[in-house]
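tool_call: predict_structure(chain=1)
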Amino acid sequence: MSLRFFLLPASLAALVACASVAPPIAAEDSPSTPAPPPDGGAAVDASPPPDASPPPDPLDLRFDDGFVRAGHATPDGGLVLVLERPGYIRDRAGRPDRYVIAVDAKGRPRGRLDATPGRELLDVAVHPTGAVTVLEASDEGYHLVRATSELARIRETLLVDDAIATDPPALREGERSGPIEPFSHDTGRLDAIGDGILLATRTARHSVVAYRMDAAFAVKSRTLVLPAHDLYAVGLTGGSYDAFSQLDAHFHVHIAHDDAGIVYVGLQHERVYTEGVKRALEEVFGEKVSGDPDGRDFYVTRIAPDGERLGVVAVGTDDEDQLYGFHGSDDGVYAVGRTEKWNEEGTGHDALVTHVDRNGLTKVSRSNVDRGDVLFDALPLGGGMLVTTGTSGYAQNPHGASISEEGNAFAWVLRPEGITKLELPKSPRQSQARFARRLPGNRVLVGGMLDGPGTHSGDADQTLLRSHGFVTVRALP
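tool_result:
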């Protein structure tokens, strides 16, 4: 079936924005059942008995209720993991179904945090003290939750920002001025900076704002990253799952910092090529952004530690670039995703790595791993080393947005002298390596998806919109 992007009319866009969200099921009401992993990994119950036996060493865990979208190491050697359940696109467009679990150094679960009823859980950050900050979203806006290392809630704050309505350009008659993007709530991201927080959000004006907050969530600086502009929702003419969240990616925001405390906020171009990003930057900030003449790039804004805006750069190729991952380095940030050199077979997407340093200088590299490729993360290791994670071996309808059920997770260690592939688990359907994190002892943590769906997997049977998660620790060669 040929699938094409289409612009949602106002009535349908409003329907998507107001899609009903089923309250999360509490762990005690619906305990997770470990799935027998096809590749021999240790299954992990998200709500196990207290005497659960530790997995084999080295750490190699499986989860049966969703894939592992993000992960962080804790100071005591444990992990905090964000899991996501694949959702039917017409029920949950822009409303992700995520939860968080904590495990100790041996992989034994020690806590779980589900989204508050009526909200969506977006992201987490782990602090040097072991405390955890959780970001949730609702029609009210963005909620910041501080939790213990065992994910017990301590306190929460609703972000209130009256400046959204007064930010330039002037509010137009009938324009929304609320705190959160109406078409998608998956529009906030966190980064821990000491015991404080960096937060990037997209507002109802489609503008993007970055905040620096202390441990009590008091705002220390606020920066308008991208002024209000036109941004439209896109959808599918068929299909059941937005693989890679490709249709939602132009709403997403990304945030990270470098060793000097410079903050970086990353955005993708608009899916409908209005060049609204470029016009808004020029009209409000006087910044003329170069790059792809069609404006199909990544946009990375640098912010000083005191909140002063340092400028924006467009980074990417002459083809269409899509942003899926953001990772701070010692002197800048890595922004990764994919770029497409169209072909009739639908295998023209290449993995894309870009780097922006604190002076705004950019580097771009694209690589063809196997058929279609996408990167979700790039972990800098120093000394010119980089670990990249993603998915390869898929195909996409060359005239639409359908992504195949087939796909293979990969993790590469890149050095100036060559490439080493890390062995990752395999599955019969789509697998994805979503993130990499450095661990003590010259090790790296990689996590992601096993047995995941493609665009059409759930068309006739929505029970096929399922996936398993994995995390595995590998020694760096």
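agent: The CA atoms of residues 231 and 323 lie 16 Å apart. Proceeding to next step.
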